[in-house]
Amino acid sequence: LVAWKRNCSSCCLLSYRSDRNETRKLNCSERIMWKYSPVSDPALRIYPVDLRDEGNYTCETVNSEGNFHFNFSLTVIVPPTVTLTHDKSRVAICQASAGKPAADISWIPASNHSSEEEFHHPNGTVTKVSYFGWAKSSFPSVTCLVTHPATNQTLFMDMT
């Protein structure tokens, strides 16, 4: 017997019993399935993964050697949507929207005239906005660097 369980009430249960060649799927969406065949490789596949899939999963195997439990924690990472704009007062605005975890934003040239805001969304994603005061600068351009576990992006804007 091989069974995958999500550790919450009324969550998905995916199981295979080899002596009966029987598979069962309870409370599972179509996105949750066996990666290959449970006979040869009982790996779990979640595709496409969703923020709601985040959590703890247990794989339980039962054979002649005994019962075995393997615990896995699934963390979903969401790359942010990145934009670079400016307003009328020559403030550059770099925004990393709806990322998980929050992105880090830095500027070239480096400046202590920048400020940041962070907005937390109900689905667990975060939007970070960084403002770069450009009015007193003699540099002709600005570069926004966005660092995130899923992506690193560099955006360039000519300020002349």
TrEMBL record:
Gene: Cd200r1a_0
GO biological process, one term: regulation of neuroinflammatory response
SUPFAM superfamilies for this protein: Immunoglobulin (SSF48726)
PROSITE patterns: IG_LIKE (PS50835)
Record-linked Pfam families: C2-set_2, I-set
GO molecular function, one term: signaling receptor activity
Similarity-based family: Belongs to the CD200R family.
Protein's name in the database: MOR1A protein
Keyword annotations of the record: Disulfide bond, Glycoprotein, Membrane, Receptor, Transmembrane, Transmembrane helix
GO annotations of cellular component type: external side of plasma membrane
Protein species of origin: Erpornis zantholeuca
Keyword Aminoacyl-tRNA synthetase: no
Membrane topology summary: Single-pass membrane protein
Subcellular location: Membrane
Keyword tRNA processing applies: no
Xref: Gene3D superfamilies: Immunoglobulins
All copies of domain Ig-like, residue ranges: 1-75
